[in-house]
Amino acid sequence: WEKFSEYGQLYAILNDNKVKVLTGIFPSVDAAKQKLAEIKRTGYKDAFIKKVNSALLVNISEFETGIKKPLIPISFEDNKITKGAPTGTTEKPADYTVKGQPNQPSFPASYDTKPINPATDVSGIDYAESTGMALPTIRTRVKRRSALELQKVLKAEKYYDKSLDGYYGDGTANAYNKALVENAELRKYALLAEHASSGTPSRSGNFLQNAINRMPVDPSAINTIDRSNEPVAKVYSAYYLYTKLGPSSDVNRMMRTALKGAFSGKKMENKPPFDYNATYAYEDMDQLIRHMFYVHAAPGNIYEVPRWVYDRHPRETAKAQAAIAGFGTSDFKSAAGSNQLDWPEVKLLETIAADLNANQTDASKLAASSAKRSQIFLAPNSLTKEEKSSAEAWNQDLWTNLNAWANRDPLHEKSVVALKIAYYQSAVRLEDYFMDQGYSARDAKAFTLVTLRTLVADHLDRFV
Description:
Blueprint: H1 2-5, E1 10-15, E2 18-23, H2 29-41, E3 58-60, H3 62-65, H4 145-156, H5 170-182, H6 184-195, H7 207-213, H8 221-227, H9 231-245, H10 249-263, H11 285-296, H12 307-312, H13 314-327, H14 344-355, H15 363-378, H16 385-406, H17 410-436, H18 441-456
Antiparallel strand pairs: 1-2, 1-3
């Protein structure tokens, strides 16, 4: 195997007691041709290009080769091409009908890989590292409303003794840190936030869920997915194929099988907003992601949409989440944005807001908010006047009603004080994040209010 390994990820096709060795995979025949001459020059004169169904490919891993090397992220652009195939006639698999290039042919480079650690992962599959965003540095020379509001509440609680100037300097920072240490409510919630840290990826004993989670970083994950007959597995096989070769009849067939398997003969809470017996043409990622979410929302579903889907497709998932919210299913599960904002003040804010929630928030609403947040961070556009006005009005209504609620009971007041401190500290930090992206202080404030709304509105909707 050593002589083959230098050409990249290896696969095999088993046919008539023969093993055909392949490497790839390429997004088009033209891309493969560019590498073919290079492969032939190295000594494999009989190398040729072959189109195959991914279900026929057997991944050649360290287990087969005995060669110890780290896993590499999936790449659909710079891999090697088929070489060294044994001679002989074999039945040619049906070609894919490629109608166009995929919209987004590769996963983000930010997904790092780790060697499998059997001692800590009982399933034999480890998880990628956190993709949370770095904590931005707070600007001390920017005057802002969020810093002023934070100073007001800190001064009322005797943690801040300087002027209310709206500048987040050392005095404000020290007062905030003092509150974290001395305020009993904040200490309680900080402890809860630490135990419920969103930055630790959840582990699953289910091999299919693990394989779906690992798709961006483990080339062998698709083999586990392709071997499964679960409807959700057919969805991710179709997605995998689409990202390599674009729209095709095989993608359409896999998705039809997934939809029928997920919904046919099932008792449903609400009528699905689409015909699951129809055959759809998946010409763009928007349609595919939307139907992916429908399968995850099917009756009896136990599998969650992995975080990387939201990170990779923020616009498409935002639309899909809106459709799921309209569907109103309780079976939808999502790991959306679970450590997207793994900042201490934000974790604290979410924990307090969740504790003030009188009822358990529907998972589909939380996932929809997370998808919106992903869209804001990954593909921010200028907000419209209506969006800014809506966020301002929401913010004002929230605090008017929370303050009224706090005045009725001293216990309520303690919780609201803690919420205010975490809210305005998070606002300051978010404003700096958006200013780091090149936005003005005014635009950063607008983006921050919209983001804060996605973080707490689902928990605090009874106050608005």
